């Protein structure tokens, strides 16, 4: 994987082969960050990266100047790799080893962007729990957005707070925003 833009542009990061991950493709990541770039100033936001895996998305935010990044994953190897990489590049990434759903149930952390990249084989009900917990626990700041990455074969348009989705190859990003109920 490589960092697309910012301070560490073009830097390649090689993750251990034994991590149970599926990193976001460079093409999909570049498209996603073009959307985010039109919505926010990277140096003025806070980010929560759920199912962080290799830390691919967290590194991209850090490279673009985001100073408040929290990465959550339940796999110790993933957390260890993110910590080592963040330290090597002097990136402001805090890691939390936790089951994402348990973290969302208890967290009081509010951020501008929450990015979630759960396993693609989740059911719609499992995917739906993410926005349900984010919005029930008020984890987004005003004008914040939850972005859920999933397969193009999964349709989340009927999930509460769904706003829109964008498709890139086999990847899809669904955007969820605070709505008046």
TrEMBL record:
One of its GO terms (molecular function) is nucleic acid binding. SUPFAM superfamilies: S-adenosyl-L-methionine-dependent methyltransferases (SSF53335). GO terms for biological process: rRNA methylation. Pfam families: Cons_hypoth95. This is Methyltransferase. InterPro entries: DNA_methylase_N6_adenine_CS (IPR002052), RNA_MeTrfase_RsmD (IPR004398), SAM-dependent_MTases_sf (IPR029063). Keywords: Methyltransferase, Transferase.
């Amino acid at each position: 994987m490589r960092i697309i833009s910012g301070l560490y542009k073009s830097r390649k990061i090689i993750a251990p082969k034994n991590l149970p991950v599926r990193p976001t493709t460079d093409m999909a990541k570049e498209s996603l960050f073009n959307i985010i770039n039109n919505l926010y100033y990277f140096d003025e936001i806070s980010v929560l990266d759920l199912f962080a895996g290799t830390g691919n998305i967290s590194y991209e935010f850090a490279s673009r100047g985001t100073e408040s990044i929290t990465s959550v994953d339940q796999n110790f190897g993933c957390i260890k790799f993110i910590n080592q990489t963040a330290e090597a590049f002097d990136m402001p990434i805090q890691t939390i080893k936790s089951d994402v759903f348990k973290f969302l149930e208890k967290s009081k952390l509010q951020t501008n962007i929450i990015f979630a990249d759960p396993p693609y084989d989740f059911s719609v009900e499992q995917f739906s729990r993410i926005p349900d917990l984010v919005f029930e626990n008020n984890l987004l700041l005003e004008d914040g957005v939850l972005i859920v990455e999933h397969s193009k074969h999964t349709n989340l348009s009927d999930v509460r707070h769904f706003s829109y989705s964008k498709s890139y190859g086999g990847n899809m990003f669904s955007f969820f925003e605070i709505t008046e109920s």
